[in-house]
Amino acid sequence: MSPDPMSQDGASPESASPRRPAWPVGAVLFALALALAMAGYAADVASKSRGIADTILIVPAAAIGIVALLAAIAEDVAAARRTTLDDAKVREEARQTRASLAFMALLVAYVAAIPHAGFDAATFVFLAASLALQGERRPLVLIGFAALVTAPVVWIFVALLSVRLPTLLF
Amino acid sequence: MIDTVAFAGALDLLASTPSAWLVVVPGLVIGVIFGAIPGLSISIAMAVFLPATLYMDFLTAILFLTAIFTGGGFGGAIPAILINIPGTSSAVASAFDGFPMSVAGRHGEALGAGLAASVVGTLVGYLLLLFTVDFVAEWVLRLGPTELLVVAIWGLTLIAVLNTASVAKGVAAGIVGLLFSTIGFSDAGQMRGTFGSMYLLDGIPPIAALIGLFAASELFGLVGRDYIVEERAHRVVRLSAILGGIRLALGKPVDLMRGGFIGAGIGMVPGVGSSVANLASYAIAKRRDKDPSRFGKGAPEGVIASEAANSSSEGGSMITLLALGLPGGAGTAILLGAFAMHNVTGGPRFIAENGDVVYALILGNMAQAFLLLLVGTALVFAAGTIVKVPLRLLTPVVMVLSIVGAYAITGNMVGPITVVAGGVLGWAMRRYGYPVAAAVVGLLVGDMAEGELVRSYQITGGDPSFVLDRPITLVLIALLLLSLVPRLLASVRRRARKGAAATAGASPDRG
């Protein structure tokens, strides 16, 4: 994930004038990454094409998509130049971004762990960790919440609906 | 007007499918609760519960999902009225007069009026569908590959262009979805974008991607965020006040019907769903009122207009979904996902061949409207508690349900991995202002668009002048271009205004 300019603001709460990014770095990198992916995909499909049916939608669509993304970049840059940033809002957004990224990392770890640790164990840890990530520190609440949710979810899906999830205990 | 044979078949079908009735009340309850909790949305509820429909037959599955849709339509109004935070984006205008009514101690009345308006709105939307579906079914059968291609492009363009983000971002998002839909083994036998992985041969699993893009991406943004709910939400709601509100709303049939028709009409257009219907209906009601100054200060007509419209837009959007296989927004996109899950293809032949199922869906939804009256009244008593459920507990639980649901659909880890990837992509898209719904619709209609494009090419031999002999295609192309004009004009006007503002007062403290 591209770093966002908002989260790069290192201003302390006391500083009166934080650095304000002139470029919407995250937005531009995201649009460029999408444009590159579209171009790469269209080129790959075209080079291996077995007939026009393979490329008739993809190549023109990718071309329109790339033009749209370049226009979006121009819009974002123009909008950033017009905007002045509010310190408190920047800090709040940075905090929210960090929380979102941490939760994403936790989810990636959870999904990666399911085949190895089992759905039950991974879910238990994921639920407790998610709550901890949001500020809960009482061990009884963490464990109690994780157990109270994991047990019925595993029971409903694995025992009742016979979803063949790998599990550790059940 | 109504195909009586299919109608009778629908009655038989509903009578012989008791499971269809068992899921309606739970669906409505889920919808009202998800709608009422600020932060969670109807699309999260529908996406998370979509895998549960794997175990239902087609009619039951769609009735369950539309029950969530209908329940959510009213649920969003609860926090809008009680605490001035719309539970969903389609209840924004409901807060304009609902909250002032609440402040004045008329919260029970406001909730009752909102509930009655939601019920009548849902009925109006589906009644319109009931009387038009036969005509529409006949008409859409005249559409050939070139016409369907233009319809698919039109639908996708409208969704991309008629959003609150920029046109460029809307188009880019739609194309991201379109290109995703082409990944996998093509009709010509090429492996496209699979990176040599056998898991991608069948393409990206659309339901898992949809869960990721709609649900996971929003949940990422909700972490660590709790809505401040004031104690006021604890206030007691009396049955007499709710009934008073219902009577009040029913005593204003003109407002109810106007809201209902506006919502259904707006719902039919892809890209503008219940949120726009809600705001537009409020604005029209205010403009047409004898004393518009009452609006915003607790006029029940404001709540009635906005709630009737967001509920009736559901029926309107079903016309486009059933007739053309085109989803107009998040809710109908998930319904189209459910169609795919049950191997049902929406589009011109669907209504003609499944008239009984379509009528059963319409009748089932009209019954849902009446059930909403009971479920809504019962849940309004718990409203103070529902709006206070801590989001930090719900976010991880809903995420786990998304993951396990995706696994249930694909039967392997491809589902959960797709949810994570879709979630991360969707989060970045939301963050940088790209409409996620456009990407999902692109993903869902991509197959149809590519198929019709190839068929059109084969018929015409690649000669574009062929369309000159296809009057319906020409009319559709003209409509496509015409429908873009208002948005393009608005965009040009906004840009001119911004340019003028920038030159007039360039901010001195810009970094």
From TrEMBL, chain A:
Q: Segment Disordered: which positions?
A: 1-20
Q: Which UniProt keywords apply?
A: Membrane, Transmembrane, Transmembrane helix
> Which Pfam families does the UniProt record give?
TctB (PF07331)
Can you give the residue ranges of the DUF1468 domain?
A: 25-166
The keyword Membrane appears for this protein = yes
The protein's name in its UniProt record: DUF1468 domain-containing protein
Transmembrane spans: 22-43, 55-74, 101-128, 140-163
From TrEMBL, chain B:
Q: Which residues form the DUF112 domain?
A: 22-440
Keyword check for Transmembrane: yes
The family database entries (Pfam families) matched by this protein are listed as:
TctA
Looking at the UniProt entry, the stretches that span the membrane are 20-42, 54-74, 80-99, 111-133, 139-160, 167-186, 206-224, 260-285, 319-339, 359-381, 472-490
Question: Which key words tag this protein in UniProt?
Answer: Membrane, Transmembrane, Transmembrane helix
Family annotation (InterPro entries): DUF112_TM
Q: Which domain of life is it from?
A: Bacteria
Q: What is this protein called?
A: C4-dicarboxylate ABC transporter permease
Q: Which organism is it from?
A: Salinarimonas ramus
